[in-house]
Amino acid sequence: MIINGMAISVNTAQRLYWFGRYVQRAETMLRELVNAYDYIIDRDFEEGHKLYSKLGVEIEYKNALDFLKQGVYGTYGGSIEQIISWARENAIETRHLLDERGFATLNKIYNQLVERRERAVSPSNLEEIIDDCSLILGIFSTELDRTRAYQLIRFGQQIERFDLILRLYGEIEMVAADIDVINAIARQLNRNYRPINVTTSDISKFLVFLNGVVDRVIQKDTCASVSLQTQS
C-alpha cells in the first residue's frame, strides 16, 4: 500500500485498522457503562450482568460504583484500560502516520487510567474519557484532506460500530445505513473491491459480512501493490 508516497506493510495497515476499532470500542463501552450505572442505582441491579453477557463476559460487582470500577479495570479481557492499552500499542507503531493531537490525547487517556487505578471511578471520570475518545475519532474522521491512513482508521471505526450495535442491541435496522458507509470506505481503500449486499435477518450472517469485507480490503496482495489506487 502507498500512503503519502510511502509504502506500508500489511501489518501497518492492520494496526491502523485496529487502532480505529479499539478507540471506537472504548467510546461505545464507556457510554454503555454510564447508562448501565444509572440503571443499577435505582432500577435493575442486574443491568451490568445483562450488558456484559451480550459480549460473552462474566462480570461481578458489589454496587453501582464497583460496577464502574470493574468495567474500567476488571481482570477480564476487554476492560476499558485494556482496550485503551491495545489502541495505544497500535498508535505507537503507526505514530509517523497519525495526527499529533490524536496521539497525544490517547496518551493522556492511558496515563490517567494508570494514575487512577487505585482510586474510585465516577461517571464524571468516564464522561471525560468519552469526550477525549470522541475528539480522537473526530480528528481521524474529518472529511477534509483525509489520507489513506485516516481512511483505514475510519474503516476500523465503522466496522467496530457495526459489530457492537449488533452484539449489544441485536437490531439489524440500526446498522442498515452503515453497510453503505463500510462499502464506500472499502472501495476507496481498494479499487478492486466490489460492494457486498446483505439481505438477511440473521445477525450471524451480518458478522460474517464484516469479516468478508475486512479480508477483501486488508490483504497481502493489495498491500504489496505499487498502485496508488489499489489500497489495503
From TrEMBL:
Q: Where is the DUF403 domain?
A: 12-169
Taxonomic source organism: Sulfuricurvum kujiense (strain ATCC BAA-921 / DSM 16994 / JCM 11577 / YK-1)
**Cited InterPro entries:** ATP-dep_Glu-Cys_Ligase-2, DUF403
Name this protein carries in UniProt: DUF403 domain-containing protein
Q: Which domain of life is it from?
A: Bacteria
**Pfam families tied to this protein:** Alpha-E (PF04168)
